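Objective 1b. Sequence-to-structure analysis of Pseudouridine synthase.
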Amino acid sequence: MSQYYSPIVYTVTEQEDGWLLKTVLQRRLLVSRKLLSKIKLTEQGVMLNGERVYISVKVAAGDVVEVRMEQEESDDILPEPIPFTVLYEDEHLLIVNKDAGIIVHPTHGHYTGTLANGVVHYWKTKGEHFRFRPIHRLDQETSGVLAIAKNPYVHQHVSEQMIAGTVDKKYIALVHGSPIPEQGSVDGPIDRDPEEPHRRIVTPEGYAARTLYTTLTRWAEGSASAISLKLESGRTHQIRVHMTSMGCPLIGDRMYKTLPVHEIDEQTMAVREERDTWIERQALHACELTFEHPILKERITFQAPFPADMAALEKRLNDEAAPKEEL
């Protein structure tokens, strides 16, 4: 017998009296056509006042609409006891603090050891059945807030918020150099590097991308900086590419450490190469994520604490810039 998640419940208002149930589902619950087609095939997909009905029936004020989705599992993902930090969890969402170095989802050559393996194991130990549905992505070496939907309805709604640009994604990066001006935006279309397909570059033929930034701290006359960033688009490696295009690559970023459009003297390059050894990954952390909870209908902010390796790097930059005592 099929098992179902907790239903999405809606009470018909006076304004909707006489509407078709299908109209309520699409205009009030905002159920997509694709999801609605899937739900209709299940035994308890759409209920009206506790009874299974066709979505072509009319509703009356006070009627209770329930949308039920069958429980699903990620049978293709091997459960593994991989630790991770839970920032928030309810029956619809799981928000985690992803560690640097861990891949979000199994890919070719990386079938185990991913965040997905750990999350599936975590759910199984709790006797829960969910399919792993990350709503967005973070690079392997980027730490911070990651949202995971527990059902297709929630995944659809938050994904649509991302497409509409109403999800706020904020990052902190420690970079070489200092942006000029200290606050502003980078509007640079991004696409694959034709010479190295794994890299991205700013190119007029690329996809539109915009990053807002604010300089928080400058060290050693601007030879390094802490930057707050907000994405207004979600291109692969966007922050890393945009910061590099400004002459401010992320400290520790081995892929984007070269600056083909900026001339760097040998002494500055030597300093940067030394600092790149102070952290084992690019110094980028997704510190904050804000969106409207699809069920609670409230805008919620999730925050991930500053990671230890970036805090240690920040301390070294502070120590390096501090005045030296005379002997």
